[in-house]
Amino acid sequence: MKVVKQKKVDDCYESSNTVDFLLSAPITKSFAEHLGKLGKLILFEEFDIPYFKVIVKGEYTIKGAFGKKTIRILLPEDKENYPLDKLVNHIENFIKQK
Amino acid sequence: MIYLNNAATSYPKPKEVQDAVLATFNGPLVHASRTGLEREDDDIIYLCRSRLADLFNIDDPLQIVFTSGSTEALNLAIKGLPLEGSNVVISAIEHNSVIRPVKTLEKEGKISVSIVKCDKNGYIEPQQFAEAIRDDTRAVIVNHCSNVTGVVLDIKEIAKIAHAAGAYIIVDASQSAGAVPINCSDWEIDMLAFTGHKSLFGMQGIGGLYVRKGIDLKPLKVGGTGVLSEILLQPEGFPIHYEAGTLNTPGIVSLYAGVQFILQTGLDKIIEHKRKLYEILFNELGDNPDIEIYSPLKHTSYSNFCFNVKGMVPEEVGYVLEVSFDIWVRTGLHCAPLILPFLGVEPWGTVRASHSYFTTEEEIYKFTEAVKKITTIPKRK
Questions:
Q1: What is the mean pLDDT of chain A?
Q2: pLDDT tens digit sequence for B349-369
Q3: CA angle B72, B73, B76 (to 5 degrees)
Q4: Which residue of B69, B82, B161, B274 has the fewest C-beta atoms within 10 A of its own C-beta?
């Protein structure tokens, strides 16, 4: 999995320090579980399109849904240029599991 | 996709609007003064003003000035009046399109601003405006319908109060135009700002300002008008004094078609459809202990369902609705920051689901089922 594009979510809806990652492939359950290794994975498989959150305590929260190619990362409000290299590396270390 | 963000911009547009806009690309957009009475579209600009005058009960269509939307219309109204040295009264349910122009003038030391409080649904009794008006108040600027909760204020009574104090009444009808009845003549409105791309079913980039006869505004811009080119100053009179530059004709065409659609369908029928959907929303979610609703049951446009899932930030509710259920709503502050403390929703705001005449009951039931599922997400402590 590659991070194709990063985009800061900047609009008048929220004041959150939020970044979206566009990924090179659709999100699968195994990819969500891979992200879950960073913290606590919460999965809602009963939703029309399964939704997940990964809470990395004291750092950030990742959100996404199966089949989509974008994940949203909610960063600490007070850290404008939060380093995301570690997360990008973790994503790119994902090896697709059958 | 289930689109419930019509308070931001309406979708879909009536087929008539789509066809009318596409037709503008089939030939040159001619000026109304060109010859050719056989062309039915040669005076579309006047026809649009006329239909708007019908919808808003305005005596003279030429008192309607086209703008890029409500924000420009409100800037024209607020900056065009000689308000320097006076007090301006606004309400807590205003959008930033009112708040920012008046707060800018206040920062520049030109005016003072008083803000009338609202209740937990955004409603304001007309008498509260009387209590806020001072001897030096020269304008009362009020939102007819909140873009957050959908609450509708009694403009006729507020206008009476403003006029009794010698103040102008300027109405922001961004949310109400095409959604609830407006009667500029009977309500004695001095200025009414509206946008085309919400309940009037036009496209983005078109709106207008109605100005009552006898009110002299300073224009926001001057320049070419296509007529009276020998005059070196901006020609006087309505609407030309305020419409420098090439008009947004495709936008006007879309607005004309949108207003025609409303007049032909009947505003009552549109309101009744939205009322039925509103009833379903309250029936399905009104008693849910996990949901807090901010939209009122009375004094409403029946267009906005404003709520939060207890223990969840609205951003997450909106995100899950979009990615897991393909339902589009809007979350956050809605560009209306003054109302938040009265709703008790600081700092995150609310979720707003706004339906339209084209929203179906089936779509509303899918939305309410999705919200019920979302309430199962673990809550913040």
A1: 89
A2: 999 999 999 999 999 999 999
A3: 85
A4: B82
Return d(Cα B127, Cα B314) in angstroms, integer. 33
Q: Hey, what amino acid is at B328? A: W
pTM as predicted = 0.93
Domains of chain B: residue spans and CATH: 2-9+266-371 (3.90.1150.10), 15-265 (3.40.640.10)
Separation CA B217–CA B225 (nearest Å)? 18
The CA distance from B77 to B105, in Å, is 13
Which residues in chain A touch residue B345, judged by CB atoms under 8 angstroms apart?
Answer: none
Q: In this complex, which of A12, A46, A51 lies closest to B320 when CB atoms are compared?
A: A51
DSSP assignment string, B90-157: EETT--HHHHHHHHHHHHTTSEEEEEE---TTS---HHHHHHH--TTEEEEEEESB-TTT-BB--HHH
The whole-number pLDDT of residue B26 equals 87
Closest approach of B175 to chain A, Cα-based (Å): 18
Residues B328/B284, Cβ–Cβ less than 8 Å = no
pLDDT at B380 over 70: no
User: Whole-angstrom Cα distance, residue B71 to residue B75?
Assistant: 6
By C-alpha distance, which of B324, B281, B327 is closest to B2?
Answer: B327
Mean pLDDT score of chain B:
95
Q: Which among A23, A18, A48, A19 has a CA at the least distance from the CA of A34?
A: A23
**ipTM score above 0.90:** no
For the record, the structure tokens of B119 come out as 């209740």
Q: Does B363 touch chain A (CB under 8 A)?
A: no
